[in-house]
Amino acid sequence: MGKRKAFGIAAALVGAAAASALFMYTNGGERPQAKDDLLGPAPAGKTEQAGRKGIIAGTLEPSLTYKKKNGVYVFTFTVKNQTERVQTVTFTSGKKYDYILYRDGKKVKQFSEGKMFAQIYEERTLKQGEELSFQETFRGLKPGTYTLEWWLADKNWPNARAKVTFTVE
Asked: Which of 30, 57, 68, 112 is 20 to 30 A distant from 106 in Cα terms?
């Protein structure tokens, strides 16, 4: 493939991405916004919930749980559509979530730090009661008190986030 053809294809892709971003910007006001609930740390080993049951108008209910086995911690972050209608989650890149792990109040790791993500636009619809789940595994954690903050990478759902605190001995 010649340089001109490759340049033309790249320019077309950039143009399509710009048009997509413009479309998202102009239509973004039509998307539902999550309620402004701040979550505190969940008890160790417990699910973090927003404290409600049943259908909740306008929210994606986040939860963060973990299981420990032989020094390995497996965390599951879930957002569930607890509304009375279908909701859309929009990802503007390959990054679908992010998290920060703290030990004794100091940042140990951030999922997105030092990574590059493909610029891919994806919409996922969640019917009433449906959920999205993501998992990460941590090994070799040093002793201390840890806090894991995890959130959905969709600016339309800024409060689809959860936090859990746990101790490694």
From this structure: 68
Question: What rounded mean pLDDT belongs to the chain?
Answer: 77
Tell me which residue has tokens 């049943």.
54
Is pLDDT at 34 greater than 50 in this prediction? no
pLDDT higher than threshold 50 for residue 23: no
Contact (Cβ atoms closer than 8 angstroms) between residue 145 and residue 101: no
Distance (Å) of CA 63 to CA 2, 34, 96, 152, 164: 50, 15, 15, 11, 9
Q: What is the Cα–Cα distance from 72 to 152, expressed in whole angstroms?
A: 23
* Residue 158 amino acid letter: P
Give CA–CA dist 118/114, Å, rounded: 14
**CA angle, 80 then 83 then 88, to 5°:** 70
Cα–Cα nearest to 152, from 81, 83, 103, 102: 81
User: Which of 19, 166, 151, 147 shows the shortest CA–CA distance to 78?
Assistant: 151
CB-CB contact of 51 with 38 (8 Å): no
Q: What is the mean pLDDT of residues 99-118?
A: 96
Q: Tell me, what DSSP letter sits at residue 48?
A: P
pLDDT digits (tens, 9 = 90+) for 127-142: 999 999 999 999 999 9
Residue labelled with tokens 């390959």: 94
